Amino acid sequence: MGRIISLYGVIAGVTVAVLMRIAMTLFPEGGTAGMVAGFSSMIIALSFVFVGIKRYRDVELGGVIRFWQALGVGFGIAAIASLFYVAAWELYLYFTNYTFMDDYTRIALEQAQKSGKSASEIARLAQEMDGYKALYANPFSRMAVTLMEISPVAFVMPVISATLLRNTGFMPAKT
Which of 139, 151, 155, 173 is least surrounded by CB atoms within 10 angstroms? Predict the structure, then answer.
């Protein structure tokens, strides 16, 4: 089981890290398109949770797996992928001299000005962004925030996969 979790966790982790970098290159200003690309990359990468559980069920267990056992394998794979996601983000920040929050704040304030927000609304936004900068300056809180980005997908994919794959009739092993 540990071999399957490690293998598919690393595959999912490398996939999410590479796709995150591609999404950031394609959508440097973020926005809705960047968010869609980011969550799509998480879903694509975490599809390896399903593949890993199915492989474990079909090869190691002879085609039968209990829900809780499948869920454990799925969460193990998702946890490794999530750690890769956080590590990839930290590496990105390191190689860009931790300028992300400054750039993000600048873009948010520019967009607020372009949309015609009042000076008081812009000042309130600037104060809010300063709070985020302070939170982001602490590496532990920054890593926790980054982990929270992937956690909804990393929770849902194992649950869906375990629910589907506990049924021996669902995509049975080829003999």
Answer: 139
